[in-house]
Amino acid sequence: MDDAERLREMVHAAQRIVAFTGAGISTESGIPDFRSPGGIWTRYKPIYFDDFMASEEMRRESWHRKFATDETMLKAEPNAGHRALAKLVELGRMSSIITQNVDGLHQRSGVPDSKVIELHGNTTYATCLDCGHRHELAPIRRAFLEKGTLPICEKCEGIVKTATISFGQAMPEVPMLRAQEETLACDLFIVLGSSLVVYPAAGFPQMARRNGAKFVIVNREPTDQDADADLVIHKEIGPTLSRAIGVN
């Protein structure tokens, strides 16, 4: 029995599955891993949240980087891995997808927004940091590229930022609480494309394992948690999940 078949048996035996996805599932859609050589974080010094709030210059640089690197993100489409997870959600087998990604590809693959727990936010829209009002990116992009105009909230004139969690910004309480609840309720926890080095998010697999859930890692590279998993597969996510779940 090969690894994909073993994963298939574990999926079929489970009653409540949770997926935990990282950059590795999105790289298969052509989105580069920010941490990899040549990635955004190796080319740019991070802009910390306090600096973004305190400095118009830093806000301007942040939006410049956003629109300079947006083309790849906008062209990306959900891949076989995203579609396989969407199928499990559709069948009622997967209760939620906890993701470290900010690209919105899980939702675009057909997963209801209510089933996706975004730990690091979402880069496909912006929000007001004062009142929380949602702002679409198209008019912000147009005003910034044509006139250099920084966005302010149309409701309260507060500072507008992409709906992502920046360096130094507090993790969102509600998604973190939901992720913990889902982790403790599952009987199979599948890590997909995460290096499991960013905490506190990387603590969820161990939480699931301590609570009695089976623990699977599918990642091209080894992780520090491989020794604790019931099954480790160092292969591409899309083909592996497609075989295990029986979708194209």
TrEMBL record:
Residues 1-248 form the Deacetylase sirtuin-type domain. Zn(2+) binds at residues 128, 131, 153, 156. Keywords: Metal-binding, NAD, Transferase, Zinc. The active site is at residue 120. Coiled coil: none annotated. Gene3D superfamilies: SIR2/SIRT2 'Small Domain, TPP-binding domain. It holds the Pfam family SIR2. It is an enzyme of class 2 (transferase). Its EC number is 2.3.1.286. InterPro entries: DHS-like_NAD/FAD-binding_dom, NAD-dep_sirtuin_deacylases, Sirtuin, Sirtuin_cat_small_dom_sf, Ssirtuin_cat_dom. PROSITE patterns: SIRTUIN (PS50305). PANTHER family: NAD-DEPENDENT PROTEIN DEACYLASE (PTHR11085:SF4), NAD-DEPENDENT PROTEIN DEACYLASE SIRTUIN-5, MITOCHONDRIAL-RELATED (PTHR11085). This is protein acetyllysine N-acetyltransferase. The lineage of its organism: Bacteria, Pseudomonadati, Pseudomonadota, Alphaproteobacteria, Hyphomicrobiales.
